[in-house]
Design goal:
The protein is an alpha/beta fold. The chain has 14 helices and seven strands. The protein has a seven-stranded mixed beta sheet, with helices on both faces. The chain is elongated and about 90 Å long.
Length: about 375
């Protein structure tokens, strides 16, 4: 078995039979050995109809689109996996472009409705002209990719690539997680045009079944996935930039006003330094938590040891105490009252705050489980 077409189904008795027929037609055109697997959570006759048309049906509880694919992975027989929807919106009679790219060595093949054909009224104008282009542009800027349609539901990949992606998302956001991890893992990615049709007469899309807010919720959870699985773009890199700028600014004024830079600039720099340092630390924790890039996570965990972290934290706190000591002595000598302002002492407070953050961060890393040295997500099949 070379290709497995794996598609979730929830109450699609109006379209499921013709969809399976489309799949068999596409398989015949592509000339590959293939199977059609329907991951079913229906309460209607969808599974019986699918089986009658020659599909293999996996009956599973309704737990979300992402969960359906996660549960199906152990049952996939093919070396390649093709995903999509069984509502006849994607044309599964045309599988050859996906097969050709996989045969040529691609690991992850995305469909593109914008490079193919979108039937009038098939996609809401808000999605077609705003939502999808904006989020696609956003992801391309982060990862340097060249997708034209990151939300296209028709996509194919090698089974070992799917395992390496290691899906975690339970719902709609699985699509964004898959695209993000494919880029992060450096999978060889291609894009092919697909045809996208409007719903058949009498069928109501799942978004419409759930109400007007459903597309907005789907978009929101996809944005959440983009932020969850790209901590380096949203936290680590911006945090390091802010922290460095803030530390330089505060250090320049540590000895007193320098030209136009005075106390206000120093306080601004200290704010940037503490906020940036916190953001960078949270980014590292997110990398370790989600194992988006296991190699980076292992390097971070190997370098930020307990001894190194506590040593750096201790040195920062000690340096801060040295900077603030003159002010403390003056404060005690004057009957616990300050008579002047010490820029160096304020700078010392920053060093102590950074030292305390470093100690807490180091302690948290020791509490968290280390990234696995080996896992199925890293291994080739």
């Amino acid at each position: 078995m070379l290709l497995s077409i794996v598609v979730p189904c929830l109450n699609e008795e109006l379209t499921i039979g013709e969809f399976v027929d489309w799949c068999h037609e596409g398989i015949a055109k592509s000339g590959v050995s293939a199977e059609v697997v329907i991951v079913d959570s229906s309460t209607d006759r969808s599974p019986e109809i699918a089986e009658a048309h020659g599909a293999r049906v996996l009956r599973l509880p309704k737990r979300g689109l992402g969960r359906a694919y996660i549960d199906a992975i152990p049952h996939i027989r093919g070396e390649w996996v093709l995903m999509g929807d069984c509502d006849l919106t994607y044309d599964f009679r045309e599988l050859t472009p996906f097969v050709e790219q996989l045969q040529a060595g691609a690991e992850f093949v995305m469909g593109s409705r914008f490079k193919g054909y979108i039937e009038p009224a098939a996609m809401p104008r808000l999605h077609q002209h705003f939502g999808t282009p904006i989020t696609t542009w956003f992801l391309n800027r982060i990862y340097g990719t060249r997708y034209s349609d990151i939300h296209c539901g028709m996509r194919a990949m090698r089974l070992d690539a799917l395992r390496r992606i290691d899906l975690q998302s339970q719902g709609w956001e699985y699509a964004s997680e898959m695209v993000i991890k494919a880029a992060t893992l450096g999978l060889r990615t291609e894009e092919v045009p697909v045809r996208f049709y409007k719903d058949r007469e009498g069928r109501e899309s799942h978004h419409r079944r759930m109400g007007w807010i459903s597309p907005w919720l789907a978009g929101w959870v996809n944005v959440k996935a983009m932020m969850m699985y790209a901590p380096h773009a949203f936290l680590t890199r911006p945090g390091i930039a802010l922290g460095v700028i803030g530390l330089i600014l505060a250090t320049l004024v540590a000895g007193g006003p320098v030209g136009p830079l005075s106390l206000h600039w120093m306080l601004f720099g200290e704010t940037l330094a503490t906020v940036g340092y916190s953001a960078a630390q949270l980014g590292v924790i997110a990398e370790l938590r989600h194992h988006v890039d296991r190699h980076v996570a292992r390097r971070v965990a190997a370098w930020l040891t307990w001894n190194r972290g506590t040593l750096v934290a201790g040195l920062l706190i000690l340096a801060g105490l040295v900077c603030t000591l003159p002010l403390v002595i003056e404060w005690v000598a004057n009957g616990f009252a300050l008579t002047g302002l010490s820029y160096l002492s304020i700078y010392g407070l920053l060093l102590m705050v950074l030292g305390f953050q470093t100690f807490c961060f180091t302690l948290l890393l020791q509490i968290m489980p280390a990234p696995p040295l080996q896992s199925h997500a890293d291994d080739p099949a």
